[in-house]
Amino acid sequence: MAEETVLPTLHNCVESKEAWLHLLTPQMRGVFFEQDFHSCLRFNLCAHKSFVWARYYNKPRKQPSTSVHRVEQDHVWPRPPFGLICLNVDMAVSPNTGMGSAGGLFRDNDGRWLMGFNKFLGITSPLFAKLWVIYISIKVAWDNGFEYVQVQSDCLDTIKLLLDPNRVCSSLSLVRAIDLYRRKCWLTEITWIPCDANKPTDNLAKSITSLPFVVSILEESPDYLRPMLAEDTSVSLY
C-alpha cells in the first residue's frame, strides 16, 4: 500500500510538484518529471545525484578565507548545515622526535558526540600529518556509513591543496587518494575553522592510547573532552 500510494504521491501530486519545482534546478526538472519515481530513487542512490543535495552541492562554495575573524568568535565551534555530520580533524607532530598523531571526532548538528578516533602516525612531517588525518577521517566516515559530512580543519594550507582544481593530478599521492575517496557516492565538503574552535580534536590527537599505527575508535567521548564539548555546544555558531 505504501509503495503504491505514498511514493507516487511524493512525485506526482500538485502540491508535491510545486515543492519539487522550488528544490530542483531547471536542468534537473525535466529528468525528474519524465521518469517514474522508482527510477528517480535509483538514480538518486546509485549515481550520487540526489536532487536536493545536488542543488546544495552545486552552489558556489566559499573558498577558505585568510581574513581575520572577530576575536570574540575565534574560539567558537561553527555548527555544520542541517543534515550534515561534522567531522573535526587535527594532528600533532613533535618538534623533537618528528613523531606524529592524528585525531578526529564526529558530531551532529546539535553537537552530540557520534564517535571519535585517534591514531599514531610514526615519524612524519607536519604537511603529511595534515593530509593523513583527513584521509583517515574520511575513510572512517565512509566505513561507518556517514553519507553527508562536513570536514572541519584548521590547516588552511592543506585545505587549499584539497580544493585545488588540479588536485586530481597533484604530485602528492595523499591529495589524489583523498580526492578519489571524495568522488564516491556521498557528499563531503571541507572547510576551515580557527585553531581555537578545534580544541577538542587537538586534545584527542595528542591523547594517543592505541597501539602504533592502529586506528582507535572511541564510541563514547573521553571524560577529559566532555567539558570542551559542552562549551562548544553552548556557544557554537550556526
In the CATH scheme, what's the topology name of the largest domain?
Answer: Nucleotidyltransferase, domain 5
Overall average residue pLDDT: 79
Q: Rounded to an integer, what's the Rg over CA atoms?
A: 20 Å
The CATH top-level class label of the largest domain: Alpha Beta
Outline:
globular
Q: Kindly state the number of beta strands.
A: 6
* Name given to the CATH homologous superfamily of the largest domain: Ribonuclease H-like superfamily/Ribonuclease H
Any low-confidence stretches, pLDDT <50, length ≥5? 45-72
Output the strand order for the largest sheet: 5-4-1-2-3-6
Write the CATH architecture name of the largest domain.
2-Layer Sandwich
> What is the structural class?
alpha/beta
State the assembly state of the protein chains.
single chain
Whole-number count of domains = 2
Pfam families: RVT_3 (PF13456)
Domain RNase H type-1: 88-207
InterPro entries: RNase_H-like (IPR053151), RNase_H-like_dom_plant (IPR044730), RNaseH-like_sf (IPR012337), RNaseH_domain (IPR002156), RNaseH_sf (IPR036397)
Protein name: RNase H type-1 domain-containing protein
What report would you give on this structure?
InterPro entries: RNase_H-like, RNase_H-like_dom_plant, RNaseH-like_sf, RNaseH_domain, RNaseH_sf. It comes from Hibiscus sabdariffa. This is RNase H type-1 domain-containing protein. It holds the Pfam family RVT_3. With 238 residues, the protein is α/β, with parallel strands linked by helices. It has ten helices and six strands. It folds into two domains: 56 residues, no CATH class; 163 residues, 2-Layer Sandwich (Nucleotidyltransferase, domain 5). It is globular and about 65 Å long.
